[in-house]
Specification:
mainly alpha, 352 residues
Length: 352
């Protein structure tokens, strides 16, 4: 059979298996979009100081409300949404690339690698002669570098063993997280009291330091990465058949792998550099998207983006309003939601 015929047959298989009941899929996508908008409005309006978005738009708000909205609340909510979307889509594409449901940026060590790079910059960055023009980008670049190093290491393992099994992913993730933990501990030991307080809270995840100066450079990286990754949805579908079959269907497997790996590391690193380590989002969200929308990545990726955005904004809202004026680390909220879901996935996957 010709390559064109194989590709057409494959597309029909994806359509029949993963995009059944199109009206239901459309309903879920619309619902997720509405929930994302509601989360955005709640995130912008709720907090220690309540702000009416409608009054901000009409100009009826006070000076204090406008300042809180534009300088404190908006960058924080934008960062939370971008980090949630980035972690979610990174988890979805890594699971698709490695054909492994546990290929989450946190479990396989990508987030720890990004954290190690960022912490190294926080502790020793002041001793480096970094130009003022580059300084705002130094922390994201350090985190991205750490994430890329870990991801390339995982890719080398995948190439050596042929593919990742679930056991291999867990073992490699444990080893990488342990090594990153050693490095993080060493930098914590070398840090002064001020740096140590920052690192301890940052390691548990927080959007409290968000400002437009730091958010915008990372937002550019995450926005470009998410957009490009979304364009590889069909290639990820074809890779589910195996690399040889995907190449037969016209996929440049090496280039696709390279792009997905580097961009996943970049968006995770950019997010971790500003928010710290936030667990379970990249693992849980893609599974939720598949339960609602099927296995086709053309639906899983936008679904993951909207669920991740909504989940992270709402988790941050809980973190900053549950114990006012104190603030709970965001990772505690996401872990409290994600860990039970992870246990449910394990129970669901056990042999009957």
């Amino acid at each position: 059979m010709s390559s064109g015929g194989d590709e057409a047959s494959f597309e029909r298989q994806i359509n029949s298996n993963s995009i059944r009941r199109p009206y239901l899929k459309t309903f879920w996508l619309l619902l997720l979009g509405v929930l994302a908008i509601i989360a955005l409005i709640l995130g912008l309006s709720s907090g220690a100081v309540s702000v009416s978005v409608a009054q901000i738009i009409t100009g009826e708000s006070s000076e204090l409300e406008r300042t809180v909205f534009s300088e404190i609340r908006s960058p924080r909510v934008v960062l939370a949404g971008l980090v949630g979307a980035s972690l979610a889509i990174a988890g979805a594409v890594l699971q698709g690339l490695f054909r492994n449901p546990l290929a989450d940026p946190g479990l396989i060590g990508v987030s720890s690698g990004a954290a190690l790079g960022a912490i190294a910059m926080i502790v020793v960055g002041s001793a480096l002669s970094i130009p003022e023009s580059v300084l705002p980008f130094s922390l994201p670049l350090a985190a991205i570098t750490g994430a890329i190093v870990v991801t390339l290491f995982l890719y080398a393992f995948a190439a050596y063993f042929g593919q990742f099994s679930i056991l291999t992913v867990l073992l490699v993730g444990i080893a990488v997280n342990a090594l990153a933990g050693v490095g993080i501990g060493a930098f914590q030991y070398l840090s002064d009291d001020s740096q140590l307080r920052t690192l301890v809270f940052w390691m548990m995840g927080s959007f409290g330091r968000a400002n437009w100066e730091s958010v915008l450079p990372a937002a550019i990286v995450m926005g470009i990465g998410i957009t490009v990754l979304f364009r590889h949805a069909k290639n990820l579908d074809r890779l589910q058949l195996g690399e040889a079959e995907a190449a037969h269907l016209g996929v440049d497997v090496k280039q696709t792998k390279r792009i997905i790996i580097l961009l996943s590391a970049a968006i995770v690193g950019a997010g971790v550099s500003l928010s710290g380590i936030i667990g379970f989002v990249g693992l849980v969200v893609p599974h939720l998207a598949r339960l609602m929308l099927g296995s086709a990545h053309s639906l899983v990726l936008p679904g993951s983006i909207m669920i991740g955005l909504t989940l992270m904004i709402m988790a941050d809202l809980v973190a900053r309003t549950l114990a006012v004026p104190a603030e709970i680390p965001v990772s505690l909220v996401t872990s409290a939601l994600g860990a039970p879901f992870f246990l449910w996935l394990i129970a669901r996957a056990r042999p009957r």
